[in-house]
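Sample entry (351 residues):
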Amino acid sequence: MAVTVEPFSMGAPDDVAELESILDGLQSQQIVRIAVIAKTEGTATTNDFSRSLARMAIGSALEARGLLSEERSQIVLSTGCEGVISPGGYLLVETGEIGGSLALGLARSPVLTPEEMIADAHIAHARDTVRAALADAGLEPGEATLVLMKSPLLTHAEAVGLPAEQRRWAGISAASRGVAALGIGVALGEVPAEQAHARDVLVRDDLFTRRAMVFSGTETRRCEAIVLGNRAGAPAGLRIRSGGIADLIDIEGMARVIAPNAPDPIRAVRSMAGEGRIVAAFLKAGVARDGRVRGRRTTVFSSDLDPDKHMRAAASGALAGLIGDCRMFDSGGCEHQAPDGGGLLAVVTTE
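Predicted structure, serialized as tokens:
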């Protein structure tokens, strides 16, 4: 199996012209799996319908070409392009051709009921979905480099009649992300199963995964996962690397993730970027609970702007300055996806 990654730009949430052009160049009969990961502009609030608009447009583009199906396609969207994030995404296509080191796996859970959301059942759904995606990719838990998951957001309407401990999480994206991250951590062997409980979401900072990025939204009621990894012993080609960063301005840490063996990682990354070897970049940025970055007070949690907007804006500038490109998938909020205040960077590069 061979996986290709194609970036595309979007002029608006429903603009899929570049994506359609790429799709038209594919030979659909050879496609085994296809995934679209996109970052669209919008308010990123509960009632931000740009997510649904983008999902409809992307879904229609796949469906018109016979590529939309439960078994072979996945769409993961995240809204909010603050800072210098250029709206757009990445098309990942796995064909039946021999060769290639990049592995792709897809899976989605059954529809979650309101009673299951932000509860232990939500953790179990996320866990089982990742396990299914790993099997789809032919990877063991330790071989997964990055897990991307869309987790359903509990709405206020759905929370009516639920127990108080669940009802308080209605409309809270951080809770949806955190509970799914615990499930991913269990599936990857990073979080002890006996310690993964919904009551500890946003409470226990010591429980986290180091290889996952989770996003929440109202456009899906399932846990939807995309798993990426490298096949051992496969020929050179596209490869994915991931690693933790100390904070959202840790440019040196970002460079070490991209060029881990270089004596001067920053110079090496800029050389790679100039040669066009950085194909895709995914960044999850967080700020410590006390709102400080390297000991300095910030207004991330005290201004009238949503904290995630601050995170996306700051982190996008740091990463864009390093790689010299505003095309990236940058998301804020690292609940149970990194140590408190830390983050995660993943890149797909050519060898």
